[in-house]
Amino acid sequence: MILNVFDDHTDLSFQAARIICDQIKAKPDSVICFASGETPLSAYSLFTTLMMAEQIDYQHFTLIGLDEWVGVPPENHGSCAWFLRTNVINPLNLLPGQYRLFDGMTSDLPGECVAMDEFISERGGLDLIVVGIGMNGHIGFNEPGVSPDLYSHVIELDEITSTVGQKYFKEETRLTKGITLGIRHLREAKTAMLLASGERKAPIMKATLEGEISMEVPATIMREHPNGLVLIDQKAASLLTARE
Ligand code: GLP
Questions:
Q1: Pocket test for ligand 1, best of 66, 77, 101, 138 (most atoms within 8 A of CB)
Q2: Do residues 181 and 217 touch, judged by C-beta distance below 8 A?
């Protein structure tokens, strides 16, 4: 795993955007998983701008949505689907077969997990997975205590996740379950890139990078990834003992 500490969120976002662009340049049919959330927002905006400015062929890559709130419809602005449509899918005009997002409204959630896993494996697995980190160390909705061997699954949300998650919604929303790619997807992705920014992420980044590797802090799995990239800014790195 490589740790890169940037001066600020802007520098971090430029580097993340560059890495995603270069992945598609090197392998136009890449399969890339995108997290939603505040952290990657600028990176995605820079990514779509760079793709168009540099005329990189983006008609052959596949976008996978990392996770979704169960029971939240895609037209709700707090949904992960709405976030990815607004910030990546629509700006790049991706074709319907070019992306796969979880349907958090389906009555067959186990079937939805199987369909997502098949969609990814039929395309040769993930080339790159871009993730953020929850305040409790979750990745996607892989909450503390999750099995590292799971692919897609449905999970009861941690209280921290349900509370912090309100920031994405205009009105208070009941958030009890999530549907998410599993830690196994991250472990098997050719490259895994974790982004974290701001002081509020400093304690969990210290636990992630300097604590015991354990599923009590799922993000610690990044340290075992042979091609793991952790991009954080100075504020998120402020509690680290040994800064690079
Ligand atoms: C959310 C999502 C994650 C996201 C994380 C951090 O709950 N499930 O996929 O990466 O929390 O979000 P943010 O970047 O807004 O801090």
A1: 138
A2: no
Calculate how far, in angstroms, residue 212's C-alpha sits from the geometric centre of ligand 1. Answer: 22
Q: Whose CA is nearest to atom 11 of ligand 1?
A: 134
Rounded to whole angstroms, the Cα distance separating 98 from 31 reads 9
For residue range 119-166, what is the model confidence (pLDDT) as tens digits? 999 999 999 999 999 999 999 999 999 999 999 999 999 999 999 999
Q: CB of 66 within 8 A of CB of 36?
A: yes
Cα–Cα distance list, 166 to 58, 69, 152, 175, 201 (Å): 33, 11, 23, 8, 17
Query: Is residue 224 within 6 Å of ligand 1 at its C-beta?
Result: no
Task: Give pLDDT, residue 243.
Answer: 56
**Residue 133 CA to ligand 1 centre (angstroms):** 6
| Cβ–ligand 1 contact at 141 (below 6 Å) | yes
Global pTM value: 0.97
Catalytic residues: 67, 136, 138, 143
Please check whether residue 241 lies inside any domain of the structure: no
Domain ranges, residue 89: 2-233
Count how many domains the chain has: 1
- Specify the CATH number for the domain of residue 82: 3.40.50.1360
